[in-house]
Every structure is written in structure tokens, then in C-alpha cells.
């Protein structure tokens, strides 16, 4: 029985009305959620994210190509609902929904964690051609094409010609070598590059992130 099937059956059984659901028995690793409202299920209960903003702003999620919830998994997220707490006549009621939406900031005051353990990882990476970046910088200049940041203006000589390269069509989606021109990439600062891939490897378009910044700054797009 697949995890996808289990997630749908649990949502149906407990009346969790969402557009997307994921299941992992231990509640620690999931594929990303895409349509909202959405929910992560484990063997004991679930957590609801009513909006994309709730999902991406959740401090307990480690977002990447997959989603990790360290420690006890989703049961550590405020608003987690145990199956045993649901009455037969009050499944996914307004009370439980309100509980799921309640944001309680995590208490970091007494948090003690460990780092520095050595892990051996074997992986494959796609090779990059430095000439693509050099040609793009020569054509466009070392300016972030999302927010306009120039490293040299902030850091002087240290930041001269420094910029990151973003492939519009991710190399991870191609098989073997492919031809690349300066029109296939964007030049972006480190912050914008991370935001472009915040929702996974494929990420969002530069134009979309640029509009997000404009809306945040109150500029009409």
C-alpha cells in the first residue's frame, strides 16, 4: 500500500478537507506540498497548512527537494492533531481547524542541539562551464537580475565581478550534456538565488520573484 494511498484514505476517514496530502509513518520526511490547503500525516495524526504562506513560513520545516522535520517529526509542530483527539461527530471541526492555524513560536531559549558529526555521502553532480558565467557577466554585467544588487558597490574590490548563475531550466532535469548560452541563464545575488529555489530544485521564475519584491515594497508591477 503506497504512502499516497494511505494519505488519501486518512484524509477521507478523518474528514480532513485538503487539496493535497502526504503520509510518512514517522512524520520526518515528505515530498513537498503544492496545492493548499494541504496536510502532512503520520501514523498518529496530522498537521494542516491552510495556505502556501503558512507552509513556507513554518519554522519547523526544512524545505528543499524533500521536506524534513527534525526531532519528533510533524508531531512537534504546534497545531498537530492526534487521531485519538478527534471525536466521531467533530472530525475536522472549526475547533480543530482553529487549533491547526494557531501559530506558537518555537522556544529556543533552552534548546540544545548537536552538530559536527561526520557523514559519508556519495552523490553525482552536474558539471558547470565557467565560460557560461563569464560570457553572461560580460553581456549583462555583475548585477542581480532580480533585485539589482551589485556586490562591488557593497564590498568594493572584494565583490568585483562576483555574482551567481541561475539556470532557467535546471541542469538536474537534463540527461547528459546539453548546449547552454547566456540566454539560458540569469545572474542573481546569493539571497535571490536561494529564494528562487526555496520551493525545490525547479524553483520559480525570475520574473515571479521580481514581482514579489515589488509587491513587498509597494511598487505596482
Q: Helices and strands, in N-to-C order? A: HEEEEHEEHHHEEHH
Q: What's the average pLDDT?
A: 84
Biggest sheet statistics: 4 strands, mixed
Q: Separation of termini?
A: 47 Å
Shape label: elongated
- The poorly predicted ranges are 91-97
Total helices: the number is 7
Strand runs, count: 8
Q: How big is the Rg? A: 22 Å
- Report the portion of residues in β strands: 5-15%
Structural class: alpha+beta
Number of separate structural domains: 2
Please bin the fraction of helical residues: 25-40%
Give the oligomer, counting copies of the same chain as homo and different chains as hetero. single chain
Structure description:
The chain has 221 residues and is an alpha+beta fold. It is built from seven helices and eight strands, in the order H-E-E-E-E-H-E-E-H-H-H-E-E-H-H. It has helices spanning 3-13, 52-56, 94-101, 130-140, 151-155, 190-196, 206-216; strands spanning 20-23, 29-30, 38-41, 45-49, 67-68, 81-82, 164-167, 185-188. Strand 3 and strand 4 (45-49) form a beta hairpin. The chain is elongated and about 60 Å long. The protein starts with a helix and ends in a 5-residue tail after the last helix.
Keywords summarizing the entry:
single chain; 221 residues; alpha+beta; 2 domains; four-stranded mixed sheet; two-stranded antiparallel sheet; 7 helices; 12% strand; elongated
Detail the topology: elements first, then pairings.
Blueprint lengths: L2 H11 L6 E4 L5 E2 L7 E4 L3 E5 L2 H5 L10 E2 L12 E2 L11 H8 L28 H11 L10 H5 L8 E4 L17 E4 L1 H7 L9 H11 L5
Parallel strand pairs: 1-3
Antiparallel strand pairs: 2-5, 3-4, 4-6, 7-8
Amino acid at each position: 500500500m503506497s504512502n499516497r494511498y494511505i494519505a488519501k484514505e486518512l484524509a477521507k476517514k478523518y474528514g480532513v478537507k485538503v487539496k493535497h496530502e502526504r503520509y510518512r509513518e514517522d512524520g520526518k520526511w515528505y515530498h513537498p506540498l503544492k496545492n493548499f490547503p494541504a496536510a502532512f500525516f503520520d501514523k498518529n495524526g496530522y498537521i494542516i497548512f491552510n495556505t502556501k504562506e503558512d507552509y513556507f513560513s513554518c519554522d519547523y520545516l526544512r524545505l528543499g527537494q524533500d521536506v524534513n522535520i527534525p526531532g519528533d517529526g510533524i508531531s512537534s509542530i504546534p497545531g498537530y492533531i492526534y487521531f485519538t483527539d478527534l471525536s466521531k461527530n467533530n472530525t475536522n471541526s472549526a475547533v480543530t481547524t482553529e487549533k491547526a492555524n494557531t501559530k506558537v513560536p518555537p522556544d529556543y531559549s533552552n534548546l540544545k542541539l548537536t552538530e559536527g558529526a561526520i557523514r559519508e555521502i556519495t552523490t553525482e553532480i552536474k558539471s558547470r562551464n565557467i565560460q557560461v558565467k563569464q560570457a553572461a557577466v560580460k553581456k549583462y554585467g555583475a548585477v542581480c537580475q532580480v533585485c539589482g544588487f551589485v556586490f562591488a558597490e557593497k564590498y568594493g574590490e572584494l565583490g568585483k565581478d562576483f555574482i551567481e548563475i541561475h539556470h532557467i531550466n535546471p541542469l538536474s532535469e537534463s540527461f547528459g550534456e546539453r548546449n547552454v548560452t547566456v540566454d539560458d541563464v540569469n545572474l542573481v545575488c546569493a539571497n535571490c538565488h536561494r529564494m528562487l529555489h526555496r520551493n525545490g530544485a525547479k524553483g520559480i521564475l525570475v520574473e515571479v520573484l521580481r514581482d514579489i519584491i515589488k509587491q513587498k515594497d509597494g511598487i505596482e508591477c
